[in-house]
Specification:
Blueprint: H1 8-25, E1 33-37, E2 43-48, H2 51-54, H3 61-73, E3 82-87, H4 91-99, E4 104-109, E5 134-136, H5 141-156
Parallel strand pairs: 3-4, 4-5
Antiparallel strand pairs: 1-2, 1-3
Helix pairs in contact: 1-5
Length: 166
């Protein structure tokens, strides 16, 4: 993890990812959002969780943003891009980030239960793989955490809806 303060461009890009995360709330999905930036800092891919909306276990923000970026750029190698996501990627999304050859990942909140970029696992920097990713964490982490916390608190207060239903 980088120990430098976040760059202004990273803070702004996280704002775009947070806007995507809020879109997930409209369909009852966990509010995670992601954007992919090209080498000039232009957003070329967007995504937010759609697992509930589309009944798709792969409907994670990062996967959707990577797919969108690949379609926009017309190539699967995103080796000059940055992935910006509001929550530390899971195993699937960390693997997709490595396989897309993304060189840089900017994340908001860490996920101590399922994070695969330094919390539970560190897939993106595993030396056994042919590609490693620079990780910049804690960018607007409080905003990302507050959005997630609010979502889960509201779901726990609904009658008959326990945390295991999420």
């Amino acid at each position: 993890m980088s120990t430098r303060p976040p760059a202004a461009a990273d803070l702004a890009a996280m704002g775009e990812a947070l806007a995507e995360a809020r879109l997930a709330l409209e369909t009852g999905d966990v509010p995670v959002g992601a954007v992919v930036l090209d080498r000039d800092g232009v957003v070329v891919g967007r995504g937010h969780n759609t697992r509930e909306a589309h009944a798709d276990p792969t409907g994670h923000a990062e996967v959707l943003a990577l797919r969108d970026a690949a379609a926009t750029l017309g190539r699967w190698r995103l080796d000059d891009c940055t992935l910006v996501v509001t929550l530390e990627p899971c195993l699937m999304c960390a693997g997709a980030t490595v396989l897309a050859r993304v060189p840089r990942l900017v994340l908001g909140a860490w996920d101590p239960k399922a994070g695969a970029c330094g919390s539970q696992w560190d897939v993106v920097r595993d030396r056994r793989l042919n590609h490693r990713v620079e990780v910049v964490g804690d960018v607007r982490a409080q905003e990302s955490s507050a959005l997630l916390r609010g979502f889960f608190e509201s779901h726990r207060q609904e009658p008959g809806q326990g945390a295991e239903g999420l």
